Amino acid sequence: MAIAERALVIGWDGAGWPLVDPLLAAGRLPHLAALIERGFAAPLRSTIPPVTPAAWTSMACGLNPGRTGVLGFRHLDLDRPSAFDPTLASSADLQGRTLFEHAAALGEPVSLAGWPMTWPPLPLPGGVVLAGWPRPRTEVAPTWPATLGRRLGPWGDGDPTPRWGEASAEQEIAAAAWYDRRHTEIACGWLRERTDALAAVVLPGTDHLAHLLWDEPRLAQHYERADDHLGALVDAAGPNTAVLLVSDHGFGPAPTRRVHLDRWLFQGGWQRLAVESRGGRSLVGAAASAVRHGLPDRAWGELRDRLPPRLRRWAYERSAPQAAVDLSRTAATRVELYESFVGVRVADPGRCEGLLDALRAEPWVERAWTREELFSGPFLTTRVPHLIVELDPDVGAGSSVGEGAVVEAVPPEELVAWPATHRRTGIAVGAGPGIGSQPPTDAGVEDVIATALALVGVPLPDDLDGRVWTESIDATPTFVERGPQGGGGGRGPSDPSLERSLRKLGYLRST
Ligand SMILES: [Zn+2]
């Protein structure tokens, strides 16, 4: 096996084998089939929870979420009643800790086209960055260096989705196709013009459209477009480039039932409500809660976006369903993670003995762990709930508190609007110089960039959580001390239009 001159990482956001395999079998993804034919194909384990920001961040850094601090679109903050800080995760969380910056500091240039969580544009000395999703709509492509944006040509004018309000499925499809094509064109240009050690490009449309069009022929058609893009990228990269095609998580049908874990905690005696002390609640707080719960989610979101920042933060805490929980007398509360993954915050460990076993005994619980079993790092105690529960894939996490059914059916109209959701297993395919046909064993997202850099002989930091797939590649990794770590745990800018687009995809649901 020859040594690669360059590594190219291509991301198909949200691609999973249950969707991809039948399309391969039908001959509809010829470029992917050709890649697999000359290399390996494997499942790729996502983060817990398997959400876009957590997984791409762990991939970029080679670190588990206890060390990146990114477990979702918003920052968790266990010190707040809601357990959330209303700021969104962003490139401020990555800056100073990515393997891209590590390579750049060693004099190995990197290009990133649309890598998620790199907005505002991540500074990358010697390299080029087109910031990825989530990012606000701009007239000029958001890039580092900033002056590059204008030279990249058209930006945003092929996106027909209305700035405010809901887009039609046709508009969503056109926008996804446009951005995936532009990411590809920009990356192809860089592959031809530049001599980066590592180039990466991510197509976000495969994730967005899977949420909306699951089981529809139009989703398969979008995958055919992604396959055309794959062909163009492999062609532009040339024969001396090692190619890894990966996804951040997979997809599957949305749960048809939901479990209200706060109700379960309340009914099991782990949680107390503030109802008895309602006289002590301020009238305004009760009013905020009443307004929030009387409004549809979208109307509430639009109202909240117009509030000044301090009032917004206050409304945020007061309007969470858990505002009804009396935290001072409560042993445990639910922390929203994503769909079938839910956290439990233990307020009083002395009263939570047996809680983990009680959870594991429930038929709707697939697995449950203490946070120490899954994560490590400086954010373990501030941002990671004490217990992590993986529900049955057909069960999502609900947000109701107090009396009432613990398990409920999801209303049919919601299943029509949200037919699919994330699964923990994504895809990994590799081919090219230095890559063999043996698939990696138990491959995780935190391994991907470390493996790509090992293929081109770039030394890795010696404190990675991820590992190099030495069983699949013909390269022995070398290690150096990681440079001083800047950034991390940063506060990103807040942007109402971003929050709106995340709510539209169901990522910000309960508040
Ligand atoms: Zn994703």
Structure in a nutshell:
The chain has 511 residues and is an alpha/beta fold. The chain has 20 helices and 21 strands.
Can you offer a commentary on this structure?
By secondary structure, this protein is α/β, with parallel strands linked by helices. Helices cover 35% and strands 20% of the residues. The protein has 20 helices and 21 strands. Strands 2-19-9-1-8-5-6-7 form an 8-stranded mixed beta sheet, with helices on both faces. A 4-stranded antiparallel beta sheet has the order 12-13-15-14. A hairpin with a 2-residue loop joins strand 12 and strand 13. Helix 9 runs antiparallel to helix 10. The site of zinc ion has 6 residues, from loops.
Key terms for this structure?
Alkaline Phosphatase, subunit A, single chain, binds zinc ion, alpha/beta, 511 residues
Mean pLDDT over the full residue set? 89
Can you tell me the CATH topology of the largest domain?
A: Alkaline Phosphatase, subunit A
Number of domains: 2
| Structural classification | alpha/beta
Largest beta-sheet characterization: 8 strands, mixed
Low-confidence runs = 276-282, 486-490
Widest beta sheet: strand line-up: 2-19-9-1-8-5-6-7
| Broad CATH class of the largest domain | Alpha Beta
Overall body shape:
globular
Give the percentage of residues in beta strands. 15-25%
List the total number of helices: 20
CATH-scheme architecture of the largest domain: 3-Layer(aba) Sandwich
Query: Count of DSSP E strands?
Result: 21
Radius of gyration over all CA atoms, rounded: 23 Å
Which molecules are bound besides the chains? zinc ion
